[in-house]
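Quick bug: Oxygen tolerance protein BatD output formatted oddly.
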Amino acid sequence: MKSKFVVAIIGFFICQITLAQVKFEAEVSRTTIGVNERLRVDFKMNQDGDNFNPPNFTNFTVVGGPYQSISNSWINGKRTYQKSYGYYLQPNARGKFTIGQAEILIEGKTYKTTPININVVAAVDTPTDGNNAEIIASQSIHLVTKVSNENPYLNEGISVEYILYVSPDINVSQWRPVDNPKFADFWSENIDISRLDVKDGTYLGEPYRYVALRKTILYPQKTGKLTIEPLTLSVSVEVPSDRRDIFGRRLYETVQKRISASTKEIEVKPLPQTGKPANFTGAVGSFNFSVTTNKQSLDATESLEAKVKVSGNGNLMLFQLPKLSLPASLEVYEPEHIEDTRTNNNGVFGSITDTYTIVPQQKGKYPIEPVNFSYFDVNSESYKVLSSKELMINVENGPVASVPNNSTASTSNKQEVISKGNQFRYIQLDANLKPIGEKGFFKSLWFWLLILLPLLAIPLTILFGKKRKERLNDVAGNRVKKADKLAKKYLSEAKKNIGNPSAFYLALEKSLHNFLKAKLSIQTSEMSKDRIKVILREKGIKEMTINDFIQLLQNCEMARYSPSSQASMEQDYEKAAQVLSSIDKDL
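Here's what came back:
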């Protein structure tokens, strides 16, 4: 009986020692892999420890990890604990290699794993690894580039979509762009996507969910083969693992995956030469054209606005509007360019307008001749020409234009003066006035001053009237003064609009043109770059200053077709102020 008791006690202590035994082991997904496959290794322990130290993984590259997991459960009153550190390894070459020992400190004692031999063979045709979350993610998520038209005309709008396909077996928690495509040979306009719309579909015959992450409208600026660069994303992918929580639900493992869309090539066709109008400036799409004025009748020196407007769908920002043909006797200012456009899946649509301010100086009727606008219609693949109606400006009141035979005209305008008789009456000279006291007002200093002041005012009034008339008749001088004020006004307006490229460069261009009108008496019709250079050289302006002035004009023109940063606008404003000051000083 005593011996049985001793045996029971010894057995009890052996069980306790066995239950309390620490386990620290290394496990691999496979011991033989291809050189193009990946290997998962897990270092597991049944008690929590400190100072975990993995091996060096010689001859392998760590492509994932460490991934730490902890499992703590109670079954029938028995506690089970497991903690592991996992790594994904990529072999560097073929051969037989060893995964060395890992170390950990548990309750003050150091434990080590047993080394594991791995045989790396030649590359396999279809690399697989059921336990590799990264491989599962690679096979379950795809980024695709979709182009609406791979054979467009020059300047014809096409849409590019970057679509993300995700397998129902995984989840995507977040994504961010790593490398955005640069459309060097295109004019591009992004479409704002306010909310991502997830839809069900198929990819390579398998059910997938998909979402359009980015949409862009492109207008090719060159003919021939052009490349559409891919979009690269960093995506957080949640992949189901073999582990489950205490309620039996499958646990997910998050993998950071980098994916890229495919590169696309398109063939851009040139616009046909047959039937191409002489005034064609590159408009491609479907458009309407009109020329309107806000007044039909007005008085001299009043102003009216004439609008040249193109509306529709196409490359609205990539061509120039036709110029108005106006009589030389009308004062015309540089047009104000307004762009009212929006972008959707069909391209850019809206309108562009040039608004001319016209000031007639004399009475009469002035015609605005019809203006032609041509564009290439991609639907019919032919050129179309639109014409405006002839408009008439009726100036009702104002000075009449001079007539060649002045003597005849002046004679006909004279009217005969009819005498009515008894026009002059005698003035009684003896007023029979009596003095009031010794120092009365009569014949005093104030008396003579009041008598003489009206007589002195007559020549002064005549003199001031002549000066005023000269100023009113000095049309050229008035234009110079008005242009000088406008130059300062628009330069100040440009400074206020730094940050808004369209408004800034429009105001800056108006300031430069009005400066030329004020200082050099250059009219709008003479404002070509070559003519400006010639006149500035004749005035003795430095060549460097002339080049800077011409460069500013070119920047104003290019700003209509390409985006500008705030730094470039600030630089152009400072250069404009310096150049105008230098020209003014040289003059």
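Actually, after a second look the formatting is fine. Confidence is low (pLDDT under 50) at residues 13-19, 403-426. Closing.
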